[in-house]
Amino acid sequence: MSKLIKRIFALIKNLWSGSTNLHVVFNVFFGDVNIWNGGQASDAGSPGSQKTNDGEHIREKSTSIGSKAIQKFLAILIIFAVLLMVFFIALGVIRLAFAVLPAASPFQHFQETGSFFTDHNTRCISWAEIQSLYKIPGVSPRQAIQTEINSYYAEMGLVFSVQSGYRDFFCKWDWYTPDETVSEQMAWDSMSVYSKANVKLLSVARRLLS
Fold first, then answer.
1. Contact, 145 vs 130, CB < 8 A?
2. Domain ranges in the chain?
3. Which CATH class is domain 106-208?
């Protein structure tokens, strides 16, 4: 890999300075390959070799200006391709990092908001998220699931019994506005489609723990 990188940099340098031609491209990537005579023996010693060499020298001299411009263009093109490749590699590494890094602990979100999952009333939570409730230190899975279920009802203003402990718990959060007129059925009817789907899924998980 390092050898290839060195060859690419050498190619860019030579192209930009205008001191190379197309056969250098083949030399950079494939080694010293003679592409001009097809690997055949040179005819430098033949009678017509001097005339041929003179003609080639004239052609090379007449096209030197255009050749340098083309070489600079190729150098820019190669630099752009290398930068583009580096960009996509970096983008892939960033995506991989975000895929591998664990999400924020649901317990941390719970301590900050009173519910375990972010925006749980505007999206469907996954079964993997529910399984994360099984691993919260000091909190039983059943208690965590029941608290999450109750948080949906609390958002609708349902008032919990004092004995349950949930009334005092949810009163700590600014988003909780208890309303004595709201029944459990009214709270359910007022929930979003996502909230209802999440409560049903959480209820299934709670039954599996029974």
1. yes
2. 2-34+51-100, 106-208
3. mainly alpha
